Amino acid sequence: MSHTMEKKALFIHDHPFIKDKATGLLYTSGNLNSVLWERYLKHFDSVTVMGRCKTEEDVSRYHPAEREKVTFNLFTDVSGGADYFKKRKKIEKQLIAEIKKHDVIIMRFPATISVFAAEYCIKKNIKYVGEVVGCSWDANWNYGGLAPKIMSPYSYLKMKKAVKHASAAIYVTEAFLQNRYPTSASIIAHASNVIIPEVEAEALPKRIFKIDHSQSSDIIKLGIIGNIAVRYKGYDVLLKAVSALPARVREQIRLDFVGGGDPTYLKGLIDHYQVEKQTTIRGKLKAGKEIFDFLDNLDLYVHPSKQEGLPRVVIEAMSRACPILASSVAGTPELLPIDFLHRPGDAKKLCQDILRVTQDTALRKKMAATNFERSNKYVFSVLERRREEFFKEVKEVF
Length: 398
Prior knowledge:
There is one protein chain. By secondary structure, this protein is an alpha/beta fold. It has 2 domains: about 10-195 and about 380-395, Rossmann fold (3-Layer(aba) Sandwich); about 205-375, Rossmann fold, CATH 3.40.50. About 40% of the residues lie in helices and about 20% in strands. It is built from 16 helices and 15 strands. It has helices at about 40, 85, 90-100, 110-125, 135-140, 145-165, 175-180, 205-210, 235-245, 245-250, 265-270, 290-295, 310-320, 345-360, 360-375, 380-395; strands at about 10-20, 25-30, 45-55, 65, 70, 105-110, 130, 170, 185-190, 220-225, 255-260, 280-285, 300-305, 325, 340. Strands 1, 2, 3, 4, 5, 6, 7, 8 and 9 form a 9-stranded mixed sheet that branches. The chain has a 6-stranded parallel sheet with strand order 12-11-10-13-14-15, sandwiched between helices. Strand 11, helix 11 (about 265-270) and strand 12 form a beta-alpha-beta unit. The radius of gyration is 22 Å and the shape is globular. It starts with 7 loop residues before the first strand and ends with a helix. InterPro entries: Glyco_trans_1 (IPR001296). GO terms for molecular function: glycosyltransferase activity. Keywords: Transferase. This is Glycosyltransferase family 4 protein.
């Protein structure tokens, strides 16, 4: 009886997991949840996850991160920023110990911990997989504050080197990140890390019906989804654009912000642009039905972000046949027609786009159909097949 060797995978990223103070169980605010590990467990016998960890008392808004065959070895006292460098020796020691115990090393970028791991692997000639989900230059430059801006060129070059030397690389974009972070890997693939189930055929006819039955005097519902404390999401651009609309249109607008995070920064902006009457901060909605219902209710989804890989929520909105306006950042032009994009930070163009789209029923129907059609490329089954091929090859080669 042939017994195949057990293969153990190590997954490395900066992601801050959240530990429940009462139970000690781990949760996540992002998509590194218990379901995601399936992606690797299909190919490898076990997965060890390395990231950061902070303890909180209320974990009700988060998703469980743990599952069978997944072990966590997290950095509990690394808070990001300069901390990575102050504690680099300690981080590297913990990383190296785990790298030595595993057969397949998977690093997600951008991430400082992943860069440290890559530097060690390059030095020791150890193969590794690079998952490229965003741009480190954009992430640092748009983070807010001077220190991250100063770090941008450094972190960009470090990530560039790490991706170049990977033995296998998988990107979330079709071209944008590939051009910015080329690789000499022998195994290369691209698959967005979006998880939309099969696209519901009903979404388009429902949307067309909604548009056909709208009156020019109706309230116009705009929405945006993202962590409301994060400055690079472009909330300032959106609020500036809304405040510059002609009074008649501005009075019809209702703008909903959905997402977790501290609302202080956003409230300050709403105040500054004097759009209190137009805006509501809705807090977090659960992925899946709650988000889809929210999107179905909107007339227009707006995504003015200044930094992205491939924006997941834009693809979700496309799958609900939403008319969408967005910034032209990163991989977004791979998703939407150029007419409906503005340069990051260009509130004037966004204002003109909102005006044009909200006043033109035929245009909204055309946008709905185009977006819905394009979202089919990002259905889970299609992307999952590509990922499976990729990791199957990794398993054979590593």
